[in-house]
Design a protein that fits this description.
Order of helices and strands: HEHEHHEHHEHEEHEHEHEHH
Number of helices: 12
Radius of gyration: 17 Å
Length: 267
């Protein structure tokens, strides 16, 4: 049992829902990223999505676009992120999922990248612009080394798309709560819940819901029907608001703790 599967197994046993914070690697620098990931683990996060910055993040809203730009300005790269993950593995045992776009992986070389990622301690990959129909170049070597490939479903996903995703998905399924980019508007749980329940009828993997979750109250509502609550823009907005502030890590840790408390209470 890998770290992701083990995480969800433990949470089901304990009657909890996973909290999955997204942290952009390198914003404002990799040293702060290491501190943020450790603070997230201390605050109760169950699995961490580590963002790989890219110059053309088409699925990201303004907050994550600015975050990626700051990270790239500091020289953040895929090899440096893998080195950071390897260092964190000395004291952080939570599952790590790298979240990003295919271009940096393509230039790295998919086969070599999956080997290096697995050695560093990465558990899963979520590549926003790589649909399952076009994923073999990465999916096959990832599968060979035991990395879970996580795919997206959205309100626009028809039955054929759901089947295609579920044939290739590992770890968990990421259900995007709305059309559009990250952080663009608040989540509408009454619209999302029926869609998640329809996917669950075909799916044995855990289902995480992300995009638009900004508070503990919203996290608690989503925890009533999802297996994981995924929060990204709200966390990186807090990072942006506290750049250069010695309280940055503490404030992010406190927010993650609030979110985690919410996922312990099913709605």
């Amino acid at each position: 049992m890998g770290r992701i599967e083990d995480c969800f197994h433990r949470l089901r046993r304990d009657g909890e829902v996973a909290l999955v914070p997204f942290i952009m690697a390198g914003d404002p620098d990799l040293g702060v990223t290491r501190s943020l990931i450790r603070a997230a683990a201390d605050a109760g996060a169950d699995l961490i999505e580590i963002g790989v910055p890219f110059s053309d993040p088409t699925a990201d809203g303004p907050v994550l676009q600015r975050s990626a730009a700051r990270a790239l300005q500091k020289g953040t790269s895929l090899p440096r992120i893998l080195a950071m993950v390897s260092e964190l593995r000395a004291d952080v045992q939570l599952p790590f999922v790298l979240f990003g776009y295919y271009n940096p992986i393509f230039h790295y070389g998919p086969a070599q990248f999956t080997k290096d990622a697995q050695r560093a301690g990465v558990d899963g990959l979520l590549v926003v612009d790589l649909p399952p129909e076009e994923a073999d170049e990465l999916w096959k070597p990832a599968r060979e080394v035991g990395l879970d490939m996580i795919f997206l479903l959205a309100p626009t996903s028809d039955a054929r798309r759901v089947r295609a995703v579920l044939r290739r998905a590992g770890g968990f399924v990421y259900y995007v709560s709305m059309t559009g980019v990250t952080g663009s508007r608040a989540i509408a749980p009454t619209d999302v819940r029926p869609a998640v329940e329809r996917v669950r009828q075909q799916c044995t993997l855990p289902i995480g819901v992300g995009f638009g979750i900004t508070s503990g109250a919203e996290a608690a509502t989503v925890a009533g029907f999802a297996d994981a609550v995924i929060v990204g823009s709200a966390i990186m907005r807090l990072v942006e608001a506290n750049l250069g502030n010695g309280e940055l890590v503490g404030k992010v840790g406190a927010f993650i703790r609030e979110l985690k408390d919410a996922t312990r209470r099913r709605g």
